[in-house]
Write a structure and sequence with these properties.
Layout: H1 5-10, H2 19-32, H3 43-52
Helix pairs in contact: 2-3
The structure holds zinc ion.
Length: about 55
């Protein structure tokens, strides 16, 4: 899977990201880029966001 440089440039993970921030980041990341797998520990929540949050 390709790295989406533009997306990463505009979506920096905060150094002290909370769990909720990481879940949101990974949900957005999974839509835009495939350079990293979703960490197992937050995967169910990220997938829930991806399914339940499809506006547009
Ligand atoms: Zn990426």
């Amino acid at each position: 899977m390709a790295l989406n440089r533009e997306w990463h440039r505009s979506h920096r993970m905060p150094p002290k990201a909370t769990r909720a921030q990481r879940i949101e980041w990974h949900a957005a990341h999974a839509r835009a880029c495939g350079c990293r797998a979703i960490p197992e520990g937050i995967k169910p929540e990220v997938e829930k966001l991806l399914k339940g949050n499809r506006k547009r």
